[in-house]
Specification:
two-stranded parallel ribbon, 11% helix, 253 residues, little secondary structure, 2 strands
Amino acid sequence: MERFYLALFLAVSLIQLVSADELVQGDCAVPLPATDLRHCSFAGKQLEGIDLQGAMLDGVDFSNAKMVGCNLTHASLRKADLKWAMLTDCQVTYADLSEADLFHTTFDGSTLSHSRFVKANMFGANLNEVIAQEADFTEAYMKDVALEESNLNRSKFVGCFMQRAVLIGSKLRDTSFYNAVLTGGALEQADFTRANLTHALLNGARLDQALFIEAKLQGARFTNAVLHDTDFSYAKEMPEHLSRMIEQQVIRH
C-alpha cells in the first residue's frame, strides 16, 4: 500500500513538472483544456461556459470576450488582454493572471481563490460577490475597483493602488494591505479583523460600521476618514491621529 501511494505521489509530481512547451498546441476554433493556445486570439468571441482548465494562455487577446460560466482553473494568463471581458460566474482558481490587462473586466459572482493577479491592471474591474480567498493581488493597479460583498479572507493586497475602491460589506479577515492606497474608498461594513494595514493610506475613506478588530495599524493614515460606529477593538499600534479622531467621535456622541 505504501508503494502505491509513493508511485501516485511521483506521478502527480511529474504531471506538475510538465512545462508549457510540452502541451499540445490547441485548435483556436475548438479550444480545449490543457492545451497551448498562445497563438490564438479570442477577442470579441462568444465563449460562454468554455472549459480551459490548465491551458496556456499567456498574452492571449480576450478583449470584449463573453465568457460567462467559464472554467480557467490552473490556467496561465500572464499578460493576457481581458479588457472589457465578461467572466461572471466563472471558476478561476489557482490561475495566474499576473500582469494581465483587466481594465473594466467583470468577474462578478466568480471564484478566484488561490489565483495570482500580481501587477495586473485592474482599473475599474468588477469583482462583486466573488470568492477570492488566499488570492494574490500584490502591486495590482485597482483604482475604482468594485469588490462589494466579496469574500477576500487571507488575500494579499500589498502595495496595491486602490483609490476609490468599493469594498462595502466585504470579508477581509487576515488580509494584507501593507503599503496599500485606499484613499477615498467605500469600506462601509467591511470586516478587516486581524488585517495588516501597516503604512496603508485610508485618507477620506468611509468606514461606517467597519471592523478593524486586532488589525495592525502601524503607520496607517486615516485623515478625514468617516468613522461612524467603526470598531477598532484591540487594534495594534494605533496611530496617534486615529486615536484622537476616535476620541472626538466619542465626545460628539
